[in-house]
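I'll show a sample.
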Amino acid sequence: MKPSFFKTAILLAAISIASQAGADSPSAKVPMKPEEVDILIFEHFRNNDLDAVMSLYEPDATLVIDDKTFARGHEAMRKVLSGFLNAEKLEWVKGPVAWVNSTNDLAITRGTWRATFKDKDGKLTTIMGKNVEIVRKQPDGSWRFVVDHANGAD
């Protein structure tokens, strides 16, 4: 019995260490509160990690581009969201904040953000928006975007 116990203990320790490896890297962070989805998306953009950005979206999520244009699903959203990888600066001016429903599985997040981009001539342009999103709690307790509208509260 003792050898089996020790083997099991060593195996569990190895699994624990492996699961913590890279836990400090941005792509390893998981939003465990609704507003953390917004916080992490900027962090992933600043780290030029589009895969980590996409991990914050449900597979069939919708990205609202304007009142008449939407990107649905990861493939379509990747094309749109990749432009934010070029931002010189991304920051929250206010928020983000979240309001959760009574069953604690859906939330609306909102905030005011600012992004600065450099054009091909080196000129800086700053845009601002007031976002509103719907995020859903996943079976593992994390949260992901269902609908993302970067200017939905303007």
Remarks:
- The chain has a mean pLDDT of 85.
- The longest strand covers residues 124-137.
